[in-house]
Amino acid sequence: MTAVIELDHTTIRIGGRSILADASFAIRAGEFIGVLGPNGAGKTTLMRAILGLLPPSKGRVLVFGRAPQRGDPAIGYLPQVRTVLPDLRVRGLDFISASLHGECWGLPHLSSIDRTMIEVTLEAVGAQELAYRPLAEMSGGERQRLLLAQALLGNPKLLLLDEPLISLDARHQEVAIDVVRKACRERGITVLFSAHELNQLIGTLDRVLYLGNGQAALGTVEEVVTAPVLSRLYGTEIHVLRADGHIFVMSRGRDVEHTDHLHDHGHHHH
Amino acid sequence: MATIITDMFDYEFMNNAFAAAGIVALVSGIVGYFLVLRGQTFAGHALSHIGFAGATGAGLIGLAPLWGLLGFTLAAGIVMGALSERISNRDVAIGVVLALALGFGLLFLHYHTSIATQATALLFGNVLAVDRNMIVTLAALSIVTLLALAAIMRPLVFSSLQPELAEAKGVSLRLVSTAFFAVVALAVSECAQIVGVLLVFTLMVGPPAAAQRVTTRLWSGLALAAVIALAEAWLGIVIAFHTDWPVSFCIAVLSAFGYFACLSIPQHARAHTH
User: Which residues contact A19 (CB under 8 A, 6 or more apart)?
Assistant: First the structure.
């Protein structure tokens, strides 16, 4: 099986800081990869590099066996929404319709095939009632579901989901993971799913890609989520506790994932 | 009632006013819809002030104010769009440039006293003084403005709603932003001929903001913004004719009234559905 994504001694720098330094790994077709790591470890940066928005300063990034091409229709992307949408009084349907062929010039219009595809996808994510409500009146979780539906439009072969669980409640987190797992298993879509919490994904992911300290570790949960590997990635002493099918990543007695998560709320709107 | 209306059309200046205001209102409502959607109304306001410096500056070198207005707003719009897709949202930078532009406008007036009588017209508009030539010019400008907008509308909507994704899908945010500000510059120049540089908001922001309160559908919102702008412009002229109040004042009142009236609509709708 050829690799869908391959990094070959890749260094990615932003503003003089190496986000990834000499990282090498390969992701195979149809894999569900959980992307984890502390804030600023480069989860978003990696996805932007795969999208072709950020060329590596050293080494290579290969997507589908070639250099990443900006606007590749085979990639579905759910960005971490950094832009705070102001009083956006546009209904959900028009919001996601804008993304279909949105890169073409001229007036926006959709074929009946496009419309049906949007309808089917909204239903799969349980977001059909969002189609007729303005974005301004949606909760963060509802927007997130709409964005997930949008990422699935157009039958992508690769899904890049940047923190898709942020601001979803527990039930919708499960729905979201379930929808993505189905897309992955039934349609053979390769998935990169970044998250703060490993435990929700344990039953779903094939392998985990842990980023930190400019390094990347790809492997099964058993291989990667261990005290020595994570201590290296976090640059501090990490303990990994396994209990009742759950894994807790602790630093000096504190749960790293949860403190990260709280920390992130103050920052992700920058 | 019928004669009250038909009486107005006995005057050529009234016919001209209706034609010019009608053309400009449609363009202002439609372009303004995107300004409101992108949250860049303040940037649009700044463009009109920069236009004021252009209009008074044009007088200094013997050009018609419209061309100075057009030249300055176009140049400023392109610079604003090109500098960065984010700078157009920076209130402080825009505020400083806006004040600077008004200052230059004053300086140009100072050195060209004969245009001073036109200052009020530039600032607050004088639709009743529009002649046939101006109508032809405005119509031509409007066609150019709307065609340009139509050409960029698809990536404009995409990058307005979802800049991160649009960028990933290959849309050049900077190019779209620059092209859009050029379109806004054209619309502002036209709008200033009717309601003046200080009151372009009455046609470019009030009607689209009201429309977005009524409908959340893209195309309906666009159409409604144009219709509301047209209704407010024409009704403003009618009221002005019968009261002898300034036209721009009447349009400003209608614009504010329309916006606040529509502001109360969604709350009712929500109360019923939930």
Answer: A12, A13, A41, A42, A45, A46, A214
Nearby residues of B54 by Cβ (< 8 Å), 6 or more positions away: B68, B69, B70, B71, B72, B73
Partner residue opposite B168 with nearest CB, options A51, A87, A89? A51
The contacts of residue B153 (CB under 8 Å, 6+ apart) are A106, A107, A108
CB-based contact, A228 to chain B, within 8 Å? no
pLDDT in tens, chain B (274 residues): 567 677 888 889 999 999 999 999 999 999 999 999 998 888 888 899 999 999 989 888 888 889 999 999 999 988 888 776 555 556 777 888 888 888 998 888 888 766 566 788 888 888 998 999 999 999 999 999 999 999 999 999 999 998 889 999 999 999 999 999 999 999 999 999 999 988 998 999 999 999 999 999 999 999 999 999 999 999 999 999 999 999 999 999 999 999 999 988 754 444 334 3
Nearest to B29, CA basis, from B188, B179, B204 = B204
Q: Contacts of residue A134 in chain B, CB cutoff 8 Å? A: 216
Residues in chain A with CB shorter than 8 Å from the CB of B155 are: 102-105
Cβ–Cβ < 8 Å for A238, A251: yes
CATH number of the CATH domain containing B231: 1.10.3470.10
Q: Check: CATH 3.40.50.300 for A3-265?
A: yes
Distance, in Å, from the CA atom of A148 to the CA atom of A164, rounded to the nearest integer, reads: 7
Which among B35, B88, B159, B164 is the top mutation candidate for probing chain A, defined by the most A β-carbons within 10 Å of its own β-carbon?
A: B164
Interval A81-117: pLDDT, tens: 755 566 788 999 999 999 998 899 999 989 999 999 9
Residues β-bridged to residue A134: A91
- At B188, the amino acid letter reads V
Q: Which domain holds residue B33?
A: 2-273
- What's the total number of domains in chain B? 1
- What is the per-residue pLDDT for A43? 93
The C-alpha angle A75, A78, A80, rounded to 5 degrees, equals 140
- Answer whether A99 touches B (CB < 8 Å): yes
User: Domain residue spans in chain A?
Assistant: 3-265
pLDDT greater than 50 at residue A264 = no
Cβ distance of A82 and B164 shorter than 8 Å: yes
The whole-angstrom separation of Cα B82 and Cα B176 is 9
Nearest by CB to B163, which of A71, A83, A86? Answer: A83
Between strands A239-243 and A246-251, the pairing is antiparallel
DSSP B233: H
